[in-house]
From TrEMBL:
<dbReference type="GO" id="GO:0005912">
    <property type="term" value="C:adherens junction"/>
</dbReference>
<feature type="domain" description="EH">
    <location>
        <begin position="447"/>
        <end position="535"/>
    </location>
</feature>
<dbReference type="GO" id="GO:0032456">
    <property type="term" value="P:endocytic recycling"/>
</dbReference>
<dbReference type="GO" id="GO:0002042">
    <property type="term" value="P:cell migration involved in sprouting angiogenesis"/>
</dbReference>
<dbReference type="GO" id="GO:0051260">
    <property type="term" value="P:protein homooligomerization"/>
</dbReference>
<dbReference type="InterPro" id="IPR000261">
    <property type="entry name" value="EH_dom"/>
</dbReference>
<dbReference type="Pfam" id="PF12763">
    <property type="entry name" value="EH"/>
</dbReference>
<feature type="region of interest" description="Disordered">
    <location>
        <begin position="1"/>
        <end position="20"/>
    </location>
</feature>
<protein>
    <submittedName>
        <fullName>EH-domain containing 4</fullName>
    </submittedName>
</protein>
<keyword id="KW-0479">Metal-binding</keyword>
<dbReference type="GO" id="GO:0005509">
    <property type="term" value="F:calcium ion binding"/>
</dbReference>
<dbReference type="Pfam" id="PF18150">
    <property type="entry name" value="DUF5600"/>
</dbReference>
<keyword id="KW-0597">Phosphoprotein</keyword>
<dbReference type="GO" id="GO:0006897">
    <property type="term" value="P:endocytosis"/>
</dbReference>
<keyword id="KW-0067">ATP-binding</keyword>
<keyword id="KW-0106">Calcium</keyword>
<dbReference type="GO" id="GO:0030674">
    <property type="term" value="F:protein-macromolecule adaptor activity"/>
</dbReference>
């Protein structure tokens, strides 16, 4: 095991979440600098793919990148999560956000321009300087003391243009910038307007820039309250069809449907759907701090595999070059044959085709290099990365699992996340098995007269019906036996294998809960216990 892991375990007691995160962060940084970085430097990985990682890349909070065409509600979405304005925020139907804005936590409210931001060693943006002043003049950091931003940072991007507007040059490579962010963020959220589902050429190119980051992508269909239920079904189908043309994955992307702003819904027919979708999205975002270490480890593994493949490609090109004459002709031939070289390397080193960089982009970049100046293959550098992937990673993964067990659960708090966690506006409050939780009267009592009539048709003996007779009635619900078995265990409060009239009424109520689309509780909540059985059951803590 790593020496730093031994020191951590023996030299001090675990002192909470921050120490745990720093320990894992130190391990990741150490692995990268000792194992992966030498391989990257030897074969010019940083010139072809991605700049070297710095300390801030390992230490930064989870980041969310918002991408979408103009007026899809990206900036409003951030305002909705934070429940306050932030410096540089502009909202309107026209393309208002013309800059990349990193919204981050700060003790005082203010903003930092891009040129100053990329020289700050505490921020993970230093390598963005390579995109030049045209980009840096359109990049800024907004800092404000907001509870949400203590756990995550959010990157707002310029609205992607469509039609004639997309032909206007931004002055920097927009897709390259998106790709840089995509490699470093924890979540990429693509926002769509229910009234504007067309994916422009620039948006299509932007989505393609996220190649290899598919696990980070989530889709939000915003402003869904502006269409009725029938239109919403058509809009959703059209969106999935459009996405299928630009995202080449066999899995269906997760799409969250709703209206993400703090204004009344224009169409309330789908309110319950919107609330459930918002809660699902909130849970996904809230889990990011807890999954941050695993995400960074996963990104390091992907980077190491790409660095290995890149080394094989570069060293092969070096090996094939002649010593004296015909170098330019050979270079052109090798670039042309690059797809064949990929296949050859896949067979020789047993590498998956998915680990190789995109052929066309690689061919374009190779045009600018002298292959004779490339390095030959250095087996020791490859072995170091292989050893890391096969041995060190598993040890670090075990450490992450240990730390997660010993550290308090990290969840994003504040802003919109607090509005639905407690009280009657929590999702599911007063619904399903939670119905009647704050009422004095037994919630089953209102339907008990109907259930009593059924009960007395099932030949009760001494006020109880047998399991056989109860089953005859319960199977009419057409629920599977596994569900009915759970309902029986919940309803048979005294575990005597029979049901009295209150227990039978409870069983029918639980069946109704399941048929209405709600989940059954694992144990019977106190408010559902039949009145005549409450004394016999132990009180809840």
């Amino acid at each position: 095991m790593f020496s730093w892991m031994g020191r951590q375990a023996g030299g001090r007691e675990r002192s909470g979440g921050m120490d745990a995160v720093q320990t894992v962060t130190g391990g990741l940084r150490s692995l990268y600098q000792r194992k992966v970085l030498p391989l990257e430097e030897a074969y010019r990985f940083h010139e072809f793919h991605s700049p070297a990682l710095e300390d801030a890349d390992f230490e930064n909070k989870p980041m969310i990148l918002l991408v979408g065409q103009y007026s899809t509600g990206k900036t409003t979405f951030i305002r909705y999560l934070l429940e306050q304005d932030f410096p540089g925020m502009r909202i309107g139907p026209e393309p208002t956000t013309d800059s990349f804005i990193a919204v981050m936590y700060g003790e005082t409210e203010g903003s930092t321009p891009g040129n100053a931001l990329v020289v700050d060693p505490k921020k993970p943006f230093r390598k963005l300087s390579r995109f030049g002043n045209a980009f840096l003049n359109r990049f800024m950091c907004s800092q404000l003391p907001n509870q949400v931003l203590k756990s995550i940072s959010i990157i707002d991007s310029p609205g992607i243009l469509s039609g004639e507007k997309q032909r206007i040059s931004r002055g920097y490579d927009f897709c390259q910038v998106l790709q840089w962010f995509a490699e470093r963020v924890d979540r990429i959220i693509l926002l769509f307007d229910a009234h504007k589902l067309d994916i422009s050429d620039e948006f299509s190119e932007a989505i393609k820039a996220f190649r290899g980051q598919d696990d980070k992508i989530r889709v939000v269909l915003n402003k869904a309250d502006q269409v009725d239920t029938q239109q919403l079904m058509r809009v959703y189908g059209a969106l999935m069809w459009s996405l299928g043309k630009v995202i080449n994955t066999p899995e269906v992307l997760r799409v969250y449907i709703g209206s993400f702003w703090a204004q009344p819904l224009q169409n309330t027919d789908n309110r319950r759907l919107f609330e459930a979708e918002a809660q699902d999205l909130f849970r996904d975002i809230q889990s990011l701090p807890q999954k941050a270490a695993v995400r960074k480890l996963n990104d390091l593994i992907k980077r190491a595999r790409l660095a290995k493949v890149h080394a094989y490609i570069i060293s092969y090109l070096k090996k094939e070059m002649p010593n004296m004459f015909g170098k330019e002709n050979k270079k052109r031939e090798l670039i042309y044959r690059l797809p064949e070289i990929y296949v050859q390397l896949q067979r020789e080193y047993q590498i998956s085709a998915g680990d190789f960089p995109e052929v066309k982009a690689m061919q374009e970049q190779l045009e600018n290099y002298d292959f004779t100046k490339f390095h030959s293959l250095k087996p020791k550098l490859i072995e170091a990365v292989d050893n890391m992937l096969s041995n060190k990673i598993s040890s670090l993964m075990s450490l992450i699992s240990q730390e997660e067990m010993n550290m308090p659960t990290q969840m994003v708090q504040g802003g919109a996340f607090d509005g639905t966690t407690e009280g009657p506006f929590n999702q599911g409050y007063g619904e399903g098995a939670k119905e009647g939780a704050d009422e004095e009267e037994w919630v089953v009592a209102k339907d008990k007269p109907v259930y009593d009539e059924l009960f007395y048709t099932l030949s009760p003996i001494n006020g109880k019906i047998s399991g056989v007779n109860a089953k005859k009635e319960m199977v009419t619900s057409k629920l599977p036996n596994s569900v009915l078995g759970k309902i029986w265990k919940l309803a048979d409060c005294d575990c005597d294998g029979m049901l009295d009239e209150e227990e039978f009424a409870l069983a029918k109520h639980l069946i109704k809960i399941k048929l209405d689309g709600y989940e059954l509780p694992n144990s019977l909540p106190p408010h559902l216990v039949p009145p005549s059985h409450r004394k016999s059951l132990p009180k809840a803590d």
